[in-house]
């Protein structure tokens, strides 16, 4: 009998296994794919290094930085170019403009009326009791106005979460914004209070990757787990009898009183249908839109734009399919051959249907759309497409209530736990921090 069985070796499953082992447990980690890491995949081809899923890791606090030190990854870390602080956004004239006070209040992005509405934010009445059904769009419209939603927040939400702000729950998706309003009565006053409360020794946030891409992280964690990790082991069936879980893969079966599903919600649902159809239904209702990650390389001389920033977001009102573009070879060193540049474009999400689209079609669409925006001439010298059919879980209105129902239903099954980005935040750092906190829970004390 196994002490703990974890299904799914994405970053949530890997981190959970690592931190439980550190506390003296002996988890068995099962992964269907040939390699661990989920969508944390990196490839070096023709002199280009591309990340096919997430492209960067934001380090904040102490948990994740300390973990990277334990994993002896400090020498592999590459810091983001200081230019990454500059973020471009496409304005109504289809010109990329760098975000900052000049563009916000200088008229190149917002109208005079939009700027006045933005400046009036501290004087807007707060909603002291938060509406659980308030969307990101409704919250932003209430606090900052329509133009701020259209030209600032909508492109951010579609570019970062691949979501539709009119459908996403502000409490679930952007809880820090809600907390700022509740704390200060306005976003500005709340932000100032939060800043003043920071202790002098608070670590600075750092945007990083690794010399060989973000896949370095899951591969390093996997190397510490040894034979506790079984790849190429898709789980076919789950069963539960007398508070004992049976996990089957091909002709192998394991048993444990403790089962952790570190899987996308739909994958967890499929395994749980025979055990609890109601629980499976709640999990399967969490939406995941498809997203294409397009790596496109050019000779530097082909691109007029200086590419002197993190990338460019594209408001949905512009009618383009491309959500945004990262200036990957600016962001981190070693991403493109000498005198060449690598761009990473994203397409899809909740507001674009990728059904039936081929890789060539998506690459052609993105190249056609971003070419005029960045002053690109000629065809790419390198291009690759990675489409994720179920990319990012959407924390839509009602998501927090759904999580409560999932917790209530899963409580009927002793020893069943979930670790995944559909409940703990979609960012890599959130998943790792929550895995650590989970391992410290009283249920896991010896």
Structural features, described:
With 446 residues, the chain is α/β, with parallel strands linked by helices. Helix content is 34%, strand content 20%. The chain has helices at 11-22, 63-70, 101-105, 112-119, 136-143, 146-160, 170-173, 175-184, 187-197, 216-225, 265-272, 277-284, 328-331, 359-374, 399-410, 428-439; strands spanning 4-7, 27-30, 42-45, 48-51, 57-59, 77-79, 87-90, 96-98, 206-210, 229-230, 237-241, 244-249, 252-256, 259-261, 291-299, 311-313, 322-326, 340-348, 382-388, 416-418. The protein has a seven-stranded mixed β-sheet. Helix 1 packs parallel to helix 10 (216-225) and helix 5 runs antiparallel to helix 6. 43% of the residues are buried.
Record keyword descriptors for this entry.
20 strands; 446 residues; 7-stranded mixed beta sheet; 20% strand; alpha/beta; 5-stranded parallel beta sheet; single chain
Q: Biggest β-sheet, characterized?
A: 7 strands, mixed
For the terminal residues, how far apart are their CA atoms?
Answer: 18 Å
Structural class: alpha/beta
Provide the low-confidence segments as ranges: none
The share of residues in extended strands comes to 15-25%
Radius of gyration: 23 Å
Spatial strand sequence of the major β-sheet: 8-7-16-17-18-15-19
> Can you count the helices?
16
Identify the overall geometry.
globular
Give the integer mean of the pLDDT values.
93
Instruction: Give the % helix.
Output: 25-40%
Number of E-state strands: 20
């Amino acid at each position: 009998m196994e002490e703990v069985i974890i299904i799914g070796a994405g970053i949530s499953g890997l981190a959970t296994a690592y931190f439980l082992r550190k506390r003296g447990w002996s988890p068995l980690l099962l992964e269907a794919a040939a390699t661990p890491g989920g969508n944390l995949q990196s490839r070096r081809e023709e002199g280009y290094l591309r990340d096919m899923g997430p492209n960067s890791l934001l380090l904040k606090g102490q948990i994740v930085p300390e973990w990277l030190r334990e994993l002896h990854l400090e020498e592999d870390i590459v810091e983001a170019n200081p230019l990454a602080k500059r973020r471009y956004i496409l304005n109504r004239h289809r010109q990329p403009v760098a975000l900052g006070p000049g563009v916000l209040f200088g008229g190149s992005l917002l109208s005079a009326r939009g700027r006045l509405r933005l400046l009036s934010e501290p004087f807007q009445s707060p909603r002291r009791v938060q509406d659980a059904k308030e969307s990101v769009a409704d919250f932003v419209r209430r606090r900052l106005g329509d133009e701020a939603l259209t030209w600032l927040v909508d492109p951010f939400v579609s570019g970062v979460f691949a979501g539709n702000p009119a459908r996403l729950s502000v409490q679930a998706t952007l809880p820090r914004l809600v907390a700022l309003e509740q704390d200060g009565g306005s976003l500005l006053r709340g932000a100032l209070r939060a800043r003043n409360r920071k202790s002098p020794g608070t670590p600075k946030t750092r945007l990083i990757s690794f010399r060989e891409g973000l896949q370095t992280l899951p591969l390093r964690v996997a190397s510490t787990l040894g034979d506790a990790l079984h790849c190429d082991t898709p789980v076919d069936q789950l069963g539960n009898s007398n508070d004992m879980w049976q996990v089957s893969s091909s002709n192998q079966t394991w048993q444990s009183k403790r089962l952790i599903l570190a899987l996308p919600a739909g994958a967890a649902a499929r395994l749980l249908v025979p055990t609890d159809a109601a629980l499976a239904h709640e999990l399967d209702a969490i939406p995941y839109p498809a997203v294409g990650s397009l790596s496109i390389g050019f000779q530097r001389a082909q691109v007029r734009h200086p590419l002197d920033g993190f990338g460019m977001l594209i408001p949905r009102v512009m009618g383009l399919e491309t959500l945004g573009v990262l200036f990957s070879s600016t962001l981190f060193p070693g991403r493109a051959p000498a005198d060449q540049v690598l761009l990473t474009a994203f397409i899809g999400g909740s507001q674009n249907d990728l059904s039936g689209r081929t890789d060539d079609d998506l690459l052609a669409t993105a190249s056609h759309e971003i070419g005029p925006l960045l002053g690109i001439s000629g065809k790419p010298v390198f291009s690759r497409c990675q489409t994720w059919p179920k990319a990012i879980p959407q924390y839509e209105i009602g998501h927090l209530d759904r999580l409560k129902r999932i917790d209530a239903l899963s409580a009927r099954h002793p020893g069943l736990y979930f670790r995944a980005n559909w409940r703990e935040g979609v960012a890599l750092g959130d998943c790792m921090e929550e895995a650590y906190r989970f391992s410290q829970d009283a249920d896991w004390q010896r």
